[in-house]
Amino acid sequence: MTSQVTSPDANIELVRAGFQAFNASDIDACVTRMAPDFIINLAELPEPLHGREVWRQGVEMMKRSFPDIQAHIEDIFASHDRVAVRLTFRGTHAGEFLGFPATGRAIAYVSHEFYRIADGLIAEEWICSDTATLHRQLS
Prior knowledge:
Strand order of the largest sheet: 2-1-6-5-4-3
CATH class: Alpha Beta
Oligomer: single chain
Strand content: 35-45%
Mean pLDDT: 96
Distance between the termini: 51 Å
Number of strands: 6
Shape: globular
Structural class: alpha+beta
């Protein structure tokens, strides 16, 4: 079976639509854009995570901690099957997050993210967020 190849522009639109769904808190719409064997690579973790449900659990935790969180795309570009995005996340710390009790503070941090597209779905992500800045804003 050969993979369906999509254009870089179509890949950008797929990722952009995913962030629009994220901003609308439509997690189901995000998940439908992912391959069943979705791979999550986080800079803080030594090994990748696997699966749409693992991704969903992480996003639901973020949405509980920062209910109004929004991803603002600063830059997005694609080549072949890869999409690169520079984002600024903004929100209000209204719930416990990784041991930090809610502060009510506005937060903003940058994330550099890369996506691999296969068969018209997001197959893999690499996330490198500025968690040091986020943690400083919470403590």
